[in-house]
Amino acid sequence: MPEKYVIEHCSPTLAGIKTGNLFRIQLEGLSNIYDEIRELNNILLSKGLRTVPVQITDKYALVYIYRPDLLERDLKCPEALEILHDKGYACTSTMSCLVQLIRHLAEDNEFPHEIGLFLGYPPSDVKQFMANPCQGVQCSGCWKAYSNPAEAERTFNRYKKCTEVYRRLHKEGKSLSQLAVKTQKGRCR
After folding, report:
1. What is the CB-side half-sphere exposure of residue 106 using CA atoms within 13 A?
2. CA-to-CA separations, 25 to 22, 30, 56, 94, 183, in angstroms, rounded
3. Coil/strand/helix, residue 26
């Protein structure tokens, strides 16, 4: 899997300012997606990152790169737990929630919009999007923000700036291993 592709789609997570990112990669031209994921994990595990294929079809893989410590923090928040419980998640552990998300992606007829919680989106925005995605949108970027648009805009700008900086640094010769940072455990926000 080309480093450039991961940097383009996952820089905020690599930098430790976002819980996770999803990206879709075409399988044509890849030798074996599982070997690619294993290689990526070999590079990123020491930095506190994990890579998981959450959906695989004949043509593409949907890949999730995330920080387990930040995901645990995010999914422990009461509003996130409420959303997950309402969607049938047992929430016995962060890993069980991730396994259940993968199952929803594979088996449900509708897209599991609670996936926003796994990407670090504010639970209040995820909840509103799930209730009525078109009503009350105050701004949009990585997600649709229904509350606190000023904070959302600052976050969108941080993610954009991070991606620009990571693109430039990679072009200047920095490797994925050098760009991924190790983070400290976070608290519920």
Report:
1. 12
2. 10, 9, 10, 25, 26
3. strand
- The whole-angstrom separation of Cα 97 and Cα 175 is 31
On whether the CB atoms of residues 77 and 83 are closer than 8 A, the answer is no
DSSP 141: S
The tokens 């930098």 sit on which residue? 15
DSSP string, 45-102: GGGT-EEEEEEE-SSEEEEEEE-HHHHHHHHHSHHHHHHHHHTT---SSHHHHHHHHH
Q: Name, in order, each residue with C-beta under 8 angstroms of 5's C-beta and a sequence gap of 6 or more.
A: 23, 25
Do strands 50-56 and 20-26 pair parallel, antiparallel, or not at all (unpaired)?
unpaired
From the list 137, 138, 140, the residue with the least C-alpha distance to 156 is: 140
Reported as a single tens digit per residue, the pLDDT across 56-92 is 998 999 999 999 999 999 999 999 999 999 999 999 9
**Alpha carbon of 49 to those of 4, 44, 53: distances in Å?**
17, 5, 14
pTM over cut 0.85 = yes
